[in-house]
Design goal:
By secondary structure, this protein is α/β, with parallel strands linked by helices. The chain has a single domain (2-233), classed as 3-Layer(aba) Sandwich (Rossmann fold), CATH 3.40.50.720. It has helices at 8-19, 31-41, 55-69, 92-119, 142-162, 183-186, 189-196, 207-218; strands at 2-3, 24-28, 45-49, 74-77, 124-129, 167-174, 229-232. Strands 4-5-6-7 form a four-stranded parallel β-sheet, with helices on both faces. Helix 5 links the parallel strand 5 and strand 6.
Length: 249
């Protein structure tokens, strides 16, 4: 089950899973985007229009996924968006929108996915997409950064609680990724340059470059990894210290 499957990282994860032989339930509020992806991926992809901030809809989607796919082994909590403003100007409803989508949805999906896996006595893996903003504050983006920091800690807590049920929970922290969420950044040459100056690999990630690490953490190759956070950021979180040794041309 993949949330936020209609675009960006969620779409890339769903596509990669299908390519590797999985059956996938893709959740999103964008029905048209899901339909387009279903046309592309074929019968292995089951589109579900779901608001992942509403518990009843999440519970129903998890049940439907089990019924349609014959079980539930992996879940990827990807859905996210932000309404940004400086703290002193932030409307309460914009704070709630961002926190609900970024953080509450991860709680709701993890809760119901883990219940389903436990009831079926079926071990599984959950991967939560956080952000480098869990560790790097963003001017004007306090609810997004706060929510993503919550996702990282929630991941560790869930890993601790669910280990006895054979359920691993890990987080991926992407940096700058070429998705619709950051189109305004990448459409601004000066702003893009400022970001790339902080990224040693010198480019934003593609959604596929984030999907790969997500699938790794969900796979048997990561069977002894739980409660971990993997930064997929082109080295962004290693920067910030002055260039004492000079730049390399």
């Amino acid at each position: 089950m993949v949330t936020g499957a209609g675009s960006g990282i969620g779409r890339a994860i769903a596509s990669r899973l299908v390519a590797e032989g999985a059956q996938v339930a893709g959740l999103d509020v964008n029905t048209a985007a899901l339909a387009a992806l279903a046309d592309s991926l074929g019968p292995a992809f089951a589109p579900m229009t779901v608001d992942v901030t509403v518990e009843a809809q999440v519970a129903e989607a998890v049940s439907a996924t089990q019924h349609l796919l014959g079980g539930l082994d992996l879940a990827f909590n990807v859905a996210g968006a932000a309404r940004n403003a400086r703290i002193v100007d932030m409307p309460e409803e914009d704070w709630d929108f961002t926190i609900d989508l970024v953080q509450k949805s991860v709680f709701l999906c993890t809760k119901h996915v883990a219940r389903a896996m436990r009831a079926a006595d079926r071990p599984g893996s959950i991967v939560n997409v956080s952000s480098v903003n869990a560790r790097i504050p963003m001017p004007g983006g306090s609810p997004y950064a706060t929510g993503k920091a919550g996702v990282e800690m929630f991941t560790r807590n869930a890993a601790l609680e669910l280990a006895a049920d054979g359920i691993r929970v890990n987080a991926v922290l992407p940096g700058l990724v070429d998705t619709p969420l950051v189109s305004s950044v990448l459409g601004d040459e000066q702003l893009t340059s400022a970001y790339l100056d902080r990224i040693p690999l010198g480019a934003p990630a593609t959604p596929a470059q984030v999907a790969g690490p997500c699938l790794y953490l969900a796979s048997d190759d990561a069977s002894y990894i739980t409660g971990a956070s993997l930064a997929v950021d082109g080295g962004w979180t290693t920067t910030g210290y002055p260039q004492l040794g000079g730049r390399r041309d």
